[in-house]
Amino acid sequence: MVERGQRSLYLDYLFLADESEVAVNKYINDGEMFSIYYRNDIVGVVLYVFHAQEVVELKNIALTPEYQGSGIGSLVLTDAFERYKRNGMIKIIVGTANSSIGNLALYQKAGFRISEIKKDFFKEYPTPIYEYGIRALDMVMLEKELIE
């Protein structure tokens, strides 16, 4: 686990998944953060925050571009499901931009279901974000039950 005092060393990774420095600075010292390794090299980070009613939020997961699509993200999600279920969490939630087609596919393949749309969430970002030619405007919230 990455200690709070060391988290700023991982900003470049966090910015891969969230381009807003203001947003990242709001949550960087919350919850639990882990570095992701592959063959003894750091390839990304993941940060979880906790909410009431035993809900954990996947706040940021980022892999360097050469490891995106490699299956590592799916393994990190599977680990989170097992870890937080053992720790008594009943649900995991995640939010991603409407334009993040790859993320939406990853989360749904892992069993997440769309639960809410936060309209215009990204509209006020200082620099507009475009992915696949689509402007990121809305936050798509997804959730997965951890109990059967």
From TrEMBL:
What is the protein name for this chain?
Answer: GNAT family N-acetyltransferase
Show the InterPro entries listed in the entry.
Acyl_CoA_acyltransferase, GNAT_dom, YpeA/RimI_acetyltransf
Residues in domain N-acetyltransferase? 1-144
According to its UniProt entry, this protein's organism is Salipaludibacillus neizhouensis
Q: What are the entry keywords?
A: Acyltransferase, Transferase
Q: Which Gene Ontology MF annotations are present?
A: acyltransferase activity, transferring groups other than amino-acyl groups
Q: Which Gene3D superfamilies match?
A: 3.40.630.30
